[in-house]
Amino acid sequence: MRSAKDFFRPLAVGAPAPVREVPFRPSRMIHFFDPSNEKMAAKVPSIAPKVDVLLGNLEDAVSADRKEAARAGLVATAKTQDFGDTQLWTRINSLDSPWALDDLLTLVAEIGHKLDVVMVPKVEGAEDIHYVDRLLAQLEAKARIERPILVHAILETATGVANVEEIAGASPRMQGISLGPADLAASRRMKTTRVGGGHPGYLVREDPKDPGMELPRLTFQQDLWHYTIARMVDACAAHGILPYYGPFGDIKDTTACEDQFRNAFLLGCVGAWSLHPGQIDIAKRVFSPAPADVAWARRVIDAMGDGTGAVMIDGKMQDDATVKQCHVVVELAEALAARDPELAEAYAAAYKEQEHNR
Length: 358
Hints:
43% helix, 358 residues
């Protein structure tokens, strides 16, 4: 057993010191692109300024005969593109594949100084993170990387969900965890072929209005992913890392996509994947607190002073618990406003209007 004192020591001589707190940078949308697709890669300069995270995908959706092209394409894109405030991530191939090792060897050596996060698919336990952790430290030392590359795990198997707490706390490199609904559904033998979202067969039905009559009964579609997202959020919160909803596969159903993203946001997720440019604005809208909510949160914080006791505002009791909730909203809004001038203006206008109406 390693001493707790060793947890924040580099795992290789010459590697950068591990982070002690995950830096919170806006990551409302993790936008995927296929670096092996020249047309898609050519759009990176125009897409990058619009997203919080740009992710070069090397795994699913990249065919076996295009893996090396995708890896080379990501290297070329990173070397020629100035990403500004946009984070650069990659999703490597799964650890049981023949490509994962070369993904890490190549990317850290070639573009490690630009790479913020490595997303690891199909993580099933802390041992997967330990392997990547040690390897990254060795590669960082060899490439003389000055700050650690963080790690993001995807929950895509029943075993991974069962071990989510130990995954979340496996390494100081852990940046966050995403839900991977499609592979997880297959692992659980769920009877759905959808990539995220609900299912019309997963529902509750109201009781009969009159047992003696066949009257219509209302039905309410339920969320297949509620339990898993909530468990993932708790594990992430307990270990100071960030939870994300994953992909929503029905690109044309923007309404259901927004609903799913909002459910995840309300449960505590900080962002979601965007697989198509049309989902970028949805994620941006959903994972940014509404200006009216931010203005209200600021009002509560102002009224609570040192954050103790209780006050009544517009007939509603506010106490130390609610002011903590308000700080979550305001801190997120401030981080987003620093990156998004339009959002900053909207937040300021809403607060000004609220103060004027008081």
